[in-house]
Amino acid sequence: MSQLKTLLKNLGPGLLFASMAIGTSHLVLSTKAGAQYGWVMAIPIILANILKYPFFEFGIRYTNVTDKSLIQGYLNLGRKYLWIYAGVTVVSTFTILAALYIVTAGLLMNLFGISGVGEGIVALCLFVFIGTILIIGKYQFLENSLKAVISILFVALLITTVMVINKGVVPGSESYQRPEIFNEIGILFLISLVGWMPTAVEASGWVSLWSMENQKTMKEKPSLKEALYEFNVGYIMTALLAVFFLVIGWMTLYGTGTELSGNAVIFADQVVSLFTTHIGNWAYFLIAVAAFATMFSTCMTAHDAVSRVSLDVLQKLFPEKMVFSSQHSFAITVVLMALINWIVIVGFGAHMGSLVALATFVSFVMAPLIGWMNLKTVMGEDVPSALRPKKGLQFLTYLGMLFLALFALYYFWMVIS
């Protein structure tokens, strides 16, 4: 009971991580993985969650021990490392929010039967609504609101998954052949899945900044053990939900030959319809709300994170040019991120898939380097030796870097051969 009280008191970065991660990688990619390739895709999903764990854990560890963000840690390593992280952040800035908001707009249009209005307008309304919440409510409101959203989401998806398993696998077509996994198309899909499962490695910097904000709201700073326990609960929840979505896609679509659309509105309709067709129309509202809550909470946390990390990077690269107060700077950055990504939606909507593929590819290729930077930072002199990662976690980090590096090299070999 005391452990539960401590967990509830310290809820924050792990909760936000779960909310942010349970988005495109889960709702879209995990569902699609199960639908196209079946249960076998559980292997890369579980491997990605295990092998990328240290990269994110170090964000919590470093901030809790030093009271500094990972971004400051990169700067301590050398200005060039901060520039590398800044480069990856720029690619995310111009793509990730646009992709998340357009899918969320599609789900919203499906849920409320909105027609006669373009996806861009609905996305703009979401940008304004979420941006206002982040500016007025700040971190404290974000954290408190997500406690309810994530709880409802987890329960709704658990119920849905149990119902799907209970009903059994949908009969597939006898002529259906599973697509090749190790050809160029399959590898590209694996890169998207692994690259954003549970999320991009650069999000370790986001977790670090959330940890700093969480400490400001608490009367007493949590110990390293308490902070890691809270994050681990969020991380395990994230991994479980990825498997839930995989199972739902596998048991309701695999073998039927149904193609999941790249269009946000059509995809939203397919996701909700495939659940209700298999379970029953009575479950429509439960599933539609769960799907929308998934993407809405992801939009909110990702918008907050991208704004915070962009601002922190700029403040450390160009401290003499940051003339606004931190409060005003955050509000301006939130608005700027919304404006940039809405322009991307309007101007590059037809090429959204290519933009997301670029962002995923950059995240995937840079992941081993960022993982190494995180390890180097958390093993630095400002972290006491007793609080540094143990040998086992260090080994897992190197294994994760090797896994991602070999994957990237294999892709390059396929492209040039």
TrEMBL record:
Membrane topology type: Multi-pass membrane protein
Any one cellular-component term (Gene Ontology): membrane
Keyword Membrane annotated: yes
Keyword presence, Membrane: yes
Annotated TM spans: 40-60, 81-103, 109-136, 148-165, 185-210, 231-253, 330-349, 355-375, 395-416
This protein's name: Mn2+ and Fe2+ transporters of the NRAMP family
Localization terms from the record: Membrane
Gene Ontology molecular-function annotations: metal ion transmembrane transporter activity
Any one Pfam family match given in the protein's UniProt record, by short name: Nramp
